[in-house]
Amino acid sequence: RKEVEQDPGPFNVPEGATVAFNCTYSNSASQSFFWYRQDCRKEPKLLMSVYSSGNEDGRFTAQLNRASQYISLLIRDSKLSDSATYLCVVKPILSGNTGKLIFGQGTTLQVKP
Amino acid sequence: NAGVTQTPKFQVLKTGQSMTLQCAQDMNHEYMSWYRQDPGMGLRLIHYSVGAGITDQGEVPNGYNVSRSTTEDFPLRLLSAAPSQTSVYFCASSSLRDRGEKLFFGSGTQLSVL
Questions:
Q1: pLDDT in tens, chain B (114 residues)
Q2: Do residues B32 and B47 make contact, with C-beta atoms less than 8 angstroms apart?
Q3: Are B18 and B79 in contact (CB under 8 A)?
Q4: Which of A81, B14, B32, B93 has its CA 20 to 30 A from that of B47?
């Protein structure tokens, strides 16, 4: 079983739609959680961290459910520019502060006009 | 501010050849790492470093060597290229101040081994 699992999609949605991605992780001792965004043929970039209390950044909302070991990302009012692959990322508790992160395979979003 | 610079962007090798992927960062980050990205597999950690002179293995280290003689540079060496090493390679750096959680990636190297 992969440590971090995502539905690869693609998710095809019209502009203005609300779309949600889920991600599950297998290690209950995982420490920190993130969403990274990767545009086609580009490097990944940090989109947002995910906190236990949930957090919001504009049209993006991230949630963490430690009991069920899943993380979600909600995008409201989708824009064409949101088309990308969204990577769920987990920091294992044993990694300390080494920069070692575990990446999911990514969920691809295509926003259509 | 260049950030993380990776070279080359593209490379084609024959089986058995060796080469070095270069990575340099100018942000004075303590941590540097190499990932490979394959379809359906996500990014997988090859090697990482927490400072000059210190390196360790990640999830998929076989066939690769690294060294970290300076804070800025973290080259990845392919000792004897194999078709299974065809992939996109990303170098990344992060800061102790951010607990190593915010990775800054280079633009990637697309490597094909024939």
A1: 679 999 999 999 999 999 999 999 999 999 999 999 998 788 999 999 999 999 999 999 999 999 999 999 999 999 999 999 999 999 999 998 887 788 999 999 999 999
A2: no
A3: yes
A4: B14
Nearest to B103 among A4, A46, A97 (CB): A46
Token look-up 């970290």 returns B68
Residue A55 burial (10 A CB sphere; 0-12, 13-18, 19+)? middle
Burial zone of A1 (CB within 10 Å; 0-12 exposed, 13-18 middle, 19+ buried): exposed
- Asked if the Cβ–Cβ distance from A99 to B41 is below 8 Å, we say no
Angstroms from B35 CA to nearest CA on chain A: 10
Sign, CA torsion A80/A110/B111/B68: positive
A98 to chain B, any CB pair closer than 8 A? The answer is yes
